[in-house]
Amino acid sequence: MNPPINLEELCFQTQKVVKEAADFIKGHSNKVGKEKIEFKSLNSLVSFVDKGAEEILVAGLSKLLPDSSFLVEEGTVERSSSDYEWLVDPLDGTTNFLHSIPPYAVSVGLNYKGSPIMGVVHEVNLNECFYAWKDGGAWLDGKSIKVSDTNDLKESLLATGFPYYDFSGLKPYLETLEYFMLNTRGLRRHGAAAIDLVYVACGRYEAYYEYSLQPYDISAGAFIVQEAGGIATDYEGGDNHVFSGQVIAGNPAIHQAVLEVVKGSFYS
Ligand code: 2AM
Question: Mind listing the domains of the chain with CATH numbers?
Fold first, then answer.
């Protein structure tokens, strides 16, 4: 069901708010001392920069849609219920940021009645803004983007995320790594899910997969992949990728090839 608002206009306004948060992050890049890092849980770091960026986003996005609710990474606002819900990762790739390694990004998705209708991902180092709105296609800084048309796994470059706190699927995961090492052009691990997804959307990678993610890591990027002509599913091929935390995203042919391998390792 389509929302009763102009999504293209809202998407451009959202990019401005996201840019404000990205500029705030850039202003603190390479400057956060070890004493300012907090430990949320195993290998999950946070700093005042994540929280400050989230506050900028919540303030700006609330003004754009006054009746909206939020699902945010750093908990600066409580989740409530509304037709419109923002899924906000103020700093995707926090570990990269705190170690002064690119890439890291601001990621903002928007759901209407539980379905994605918009996504904006702004990578801070290259200053690239990826965005999409429902039925409006996918874009990188004003240029239309599409997933790649490579249909041979052997000629594909894949991205993945290594488990860093949930090791329950380590065995099947390592099996998939072995298969893809032997049967693709290579594998990359950036440590920032939103970036991996938008790099699939613009054809830099053929596909990406990872498990144990959070909805705000996946929502915007997976939607941008879909608007760019790609496919995003969970590890069983279903459409519960955002809330199951498992995602396979890719161009249609390579998504199918990756799904067969990942599903085979995890579910047989
Ligand atoms: P975050 O920076 O917003 O927490 C996929 O690996 C996702 O897991 C990343 O997008 C990242 O999102 C999160 N993550 C948290 N800690 C991580 C770590 N130590 N290594 C990799 N990813 C981590």
Answer: 7-145 (3.30.540.10), 153-267 (3.40.190.80)
